Structure prediction request, 318 residues.
Amino acid sequence: MTTLPELRARAANKESFREVGHYLSFAQHYLDFISDPRRIQAEIVSQNEPHYRFLQYKDDGSFSVTRPLNSRLFFTADEFGRALPRLTQLIAKGRGAQPTAADRELFNRGIYTIQQTIGAALDSLPIGESNKARKINGDLFERLIQLLLCALGVDCTSGTVAVPIVMPGIEPFAMKFQHDLVIKSGELVKIIGSVKTSSKDRLGKIFVDKFLLHRMTGRDVPHVAIFLNDVQRKGKHPRYGVSATFLPGHFKGYTVKLNSLDGVYYCDIRPNMLTEPILRQHIRTFDHFIFDDLGELLQRDAIAASVVREDPEGSPAR
Prediction:
């Protein structure tokens, strides 16, 4: 049986995740590990939103407590094993899958579970390595989204987009922008995206990126944002709760006064995103990007721009 130190070492090594299959395998091994309650010190129920749970490790994990895990989305080991064949089919077929409502739920839960098993394993790192854990977790989520798109035959990477600026009387030059997700068709940049585990402290950049690109080129290239969730742990042990990291006022202000994005997607969507009119209009679950919106976005405006892809360690460029 795989041990927690083995899982932690595997999660901390980004070379362990070069294919979608590596993510699926890791998730199953982690879920198998926590399925035996003897390996876990305690399961803590969130005080304010009880469907969120926290796992506390034993001494092999320095008695650390994980991030909040949404039990409505987070698969058990048995559930993940049963869902795996259909999840693999959906990943392979993408927008051609014609998914049912049950398929959509399974897909969102699958992606959420895969990424949260990595994050939860990294939560067992010593407290002095928490920044390292956050960086690795974010990089691996970005890579997961890229790999999902590559599996659909989409040319995508993370990298620097050099936007040409041509104006009368001024020598032509280029402005360079770093992006988590750059989707191309030949020499054309078709979609630009931000891929983050949460929107905390990062919400404004992609709105501004879209505004600047439009002003500089006159082209309305689609900009999307993909987030895993927007909750974090609050309180003290053992009375933990969760708090939201999403800033609805900022989101609505950027959307109304600057420009709207072409898609904002969550695996773990917050309740107010389903009820508040502006949020409900612009934010949807991640399945909509893969199954509904991707094809339409690829038909929209584009720019001819050079893209400097990240090195192989940082991006699974095709």
